[in-house]
Amino acid sequence: MSLSRASARKRRRAVSAGRPRRHRLSLPPAPGKSDVDLSSMSPAMVDRLFWRAGFGPTAQDRAQWTGRPVSEAVGWLLSTPAGVAGSPGTRDGKPLDPTADDTDLVLSWIDRMVRSTNPFVERLTFFWHRHWATSRAEVSPPQLMLRQNDVLRRFADLGPNANASFRDLARELTIDPAMLRFLTGERNVRGAPNENYARELMELFGLGVTDAAGKPNYSENDVQQLSKALSGWQVDDRDPDQAKSYFTPDRWYNGPKIVFGSFGNYKYEDAVDLVLARPSHAPFLVSKLWGEFVAAPLDGATLQKLVATYTGSGLKLRPLLEQLLTQPALFASLDEPDMVKPPVVFTVGAMRALGAGVTGTSAADHLDAMGQVPYFPPTVAGWEGGLSWLNTNTALARFGFVAELVAEQKIDDVLGETASAAYDRAYAAVGSPWLAPGTEKLIRDYAGRAPSSSTKLRKERQLMLRALMLAGPDGQVM
């Protein structure tokens, strides 16, 4: 795989820019979602929460949270600081160096996701990366991307940062060196305004193109005037490890601006505040976060409650996420998961289920074939998601990755092992994933028909059983 800037996909504006992109199947919402008992989680509810807000459950997660309230588990996810466990990933026996090679850059983040002790932090960091989509293909040096990743993680690590707000995140990202370089903000100067970031701040990051009534959320004049407020920022990357942005007053448009009909001599903080004060901001962000975690459509009454929580807290993130992750709708359709796992979630989830770490380039190679490489979103709107993740090529890449992972595991031979025992051993080895009754029957039928007269054949049966359970059709949804 090549992740060089020269071979990266050309950035283009997405047709669906500004619309929430949901990783879900086209299934109707399950009936009876209001009957979910949030006071006592079933194993299926634990699985659902840790897939939607992480990378899948561990046996310890199931043991710890089954029978306990959803609110307690969500509280743990939101209050436990980020951390990693286990040995750091390697590539061909050498430590990963994210500043030396783009493949190592990708692998370093995958490694952190795999070893995360609170997976919600990395899952939310990845959401922010897709929301404020910035591509290494147009950002150099790579230290700028790492610096931005640290900022995004700080606004996902809500234990030590319980008062983190979207306003503070937006202010930091507006003058972030990687963002200034990606959307050419460092070329936004008095007398020659650059409108790229001003437009995306409204269209993709803060408001969306239109409001609920279909009315435009901003005008071309708003774009032009907002860009003047954002002028004057540059990037100092003479020392890449200490890269920073800085403000040059002589490059700033010092004069009156009229944005959304309001008059003032605005600077960058004012520009952010003006956007986030618009009526469309809260519904826009709430809807996008909802689509990240919940497959069922967001109804008007729930939207109003979530918006009230978000705006009432001063745009703080933790109260909103706490209310969102405890919604009964998140646990709808437990018997028929209805959200497609994005490639990164699928890949990291498979590695965690098998206890596999980063030891080579396989994860990055296969993610490229699956269509989602961290640090390389195809457009400023991120990735499209949903059913677009699944086609003939990407499905083969998913199965191939898992088959490769399984083949690297130590698989003991059990002389005289029955088909039923082989199935049970394989199921436990891959983390006891959700399987539909029909899928279970088919896999058990295979176990009964597979040759098992030699050590080689029994190991092949185990390998295929584990791959089918982890990467078959049921393994693609959560």
Brief digest:
The protein is globular and about 85 Å long. A hairpin with a 7-residue loop joins strand 3 (233-236) and strand 4 (244-247).
Which SSEs are present, and which pair or pack?
Elements: H1 43-52, H2 59-65, H3 70-79, E1 90-91, E2 94-95, H4 102-115, H5 119-131, H6 143-154, H7 166-174, H8 177-182, H9 196-206, H10 220-229, E3 233-236, E4 244-247, E5 257-259, E6 262-264, H11 268-276, H12 281-293, H13 300-312, H14 317-325, H15 343-354, H16 362-370, H17 392-408, H18 419-429, H19 437-449, H20 455-471
Antiparallel strand pairs: 1-2, 3-4, 5-6
Helix pairs in contact: 1-2, 3-14, 4-15, 5-6, 7-11, 9-10, 12-13, 12-14, 13-14, 15-17, 16-17, 17-20, 18-19, 18-20
How does this model look, in words?
It is a single chain. This protein has 478 residues and is mainly alpha-helical. It contains 20 helices and 6 strands. It has helices at 43-52, 59-65, 70-79, 102-115, 119-131, 143-154, 166-174, 177-182, 196-206, 220-229, 268-276, 281-293, 300-312, 317-325, 343-354, 362-370, 392-408, 419-429, 437-449, 455-471; strands at 90-91, 94-95, 233-236, 244-247, 257-259, 262-264. Strands 1-2 form a two-stranded antiparallel sheet. It has a two-stranded antiparallel ribbon with strand order 3-4. A hairpin with a 2-residue loop joins strand 5 and strand 6 (262-264). Helix 13 (300-312) runs antiparallel to helix 14 (317-325), helix 16 (362-370) runs antiparallel to helix 17 (392-408) and helix 18 packs across helix 19. The radius of gyration is 24 Å and the shape is globular.
